[in-house]
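Take a specimen:
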Amino acid sequence: MENLLMIMMIIGALGVLSQWVAWRTRLPAIVVMAIVGLLAGPVFGVINPEADLGDLYGPLISIAVGIILFEGSLNLDFREIKGMRKPVFRIVTIGAFLAWILGSLAAHYVAGLSWAVAFVIGGIFIVTGPTVILPLLRQAKLKPRAAAILKWEGIVVDPFGALLAVFSFEFIKFLTIESVTFDAVIMFLLASILAGIIGAAFGYGIGWSFERGLVPEFLKSPVVLVTVIMAFALSDFIMHETGLLAVTVMGMTIANMHISAISDMRHFKENISILLISVIFIMLTASLDRETLLSIFDLNIMLFILMMLFIIRPLTIFLSTIGTNLEFREKLLVGWIAPRGIVALTVSAYFANVLIDAGFQDAEILTSLTFGLVFGTVLAHGFSIGWLSRKLGLSTDTKDGVLFVGSNKFSANFAKALQDLGVPVIITDASSSRLTHASKADVPYEHEEILSEQMEYQLDMTPYDYMLSVTEFDSYNTLVSATFKPEYGKEHLFQLPLQTNEGDHLSEVSHHISGTVLFDGKITWTSLNEKINDGFIFEKTPITVSNTYDDFLNDLGEEDVPLAIVRQSGSISFFRPENNLNAEVGDQIISLAKPE
């Protein structure tokens, strides 16, 4: 027991450490996790999760994949693909079918697999999956259309890849094994339909009970988590691998019921999903042996991987999207990005054993073939998605962007100063009259209530790394900060200091639920706008060898307010109470300064 606890501790620590290293180095998280898992497992032999966890290994991975897939499908709201339903539908149907057929042909003629094994592995390899796609989308800051297509394909096709593999295996048994009748194939189709019904019923049941207040707030997340596991386990008990379909349908059902608790549920599941992805990827890569790693360099396997990357994937996307409104550059990006992940590894490991037991000895190379494709696509796509999306004009600006909540003289002019330095900015406000300040300053704005449910479909928030709540209403600023804290994190969420009166306790509330307080902690909305009325200007001071940061501080007037440092790298540092900032040569400082 103590050894098992130690192994689980090491796996969890390595997973979270990998995510942290990826965040600090801005490397693709999947690449870091794969390398760490290989180092901990086959290279140095610190852990071997498959052997160490024994019978727990398979069920743990299966349930984790089910939860990850459910969390991803919670984002599949049909409103997101308004105007793109045709290309998305084509890719997840015709594209998936073409990928299966072409992948199976390549597995037979290039990798040298028998027809039976080739068609099973061809089904598995149509998947991309949220475990690898979603981290890459966050990293690359793709524009909404391309991101939505890749996300929908990754989540929707995931269960179908597993089902295609099961269908292929059942059909192969029917053709090659006399004792197996056509009834087995019919049973598979019925089990798949039943899994979809189970997922829809569980999803509708959750949404219905939440909307009618039958489940208290503190129990909503636990109820959802347990229900996901129930739907997955029940469907998987009826027929193996149909659990993935059940949880996907369940998530999509809840997402399109538009229930009020969906955002809280999504944040909770996203946190769990990140942890599970980290842990599972470490477990899978650390469980490989050195022979499997070395066999990846077999010529046939390498040729198969190259063919999947450069011929089959682009061909399936271009053929399936003929006659749609997708632009050529979008087809080019989607046709290149198709990393395989956890589902491909787990399902192929299962079928490798099943096929060998059924007498197909060539299935021994399935693990090597799958890991070669997973690792090859993760590396190729993880390192290229940012560069390619920028070249094609399908990613947002690489510089950190700022979203201002509240239009007034201060926010409009501050946004203009940032925009002049190349920083992507936008101002949101529910009042068209207040937005005249943004219009006069000639900065982008959105006439929308930031807290409305429609906002996430009206505005692409991907380019904006920082959110500044700068309205005159302290309670509203705090509410916005509390709402977006799970998405942005407190270090990227800012608001003006509270305009507290002596004897009240709003400042104590602020420390617990608000964003980070801006500037010196005493400059309020009123004083900032008064300064602008008094003729203060937004000054941009470049830091040079002859004009250092210390020189800037010495020249700062008593009434001047330093606001932000725009780094040469494109990042932004906002002045706030007791933060020891420093500016280097090439940086620019924005301050609200009294004119001479």
Remarks:
- The chain has a mean pLDDT of 82.
- The first strand starts at residue 401 and ends at 405.
- The CA atoms of residues 20 and 29 lie 9 Å apart.
- The two ends are 73 Å apart (CA to CA).
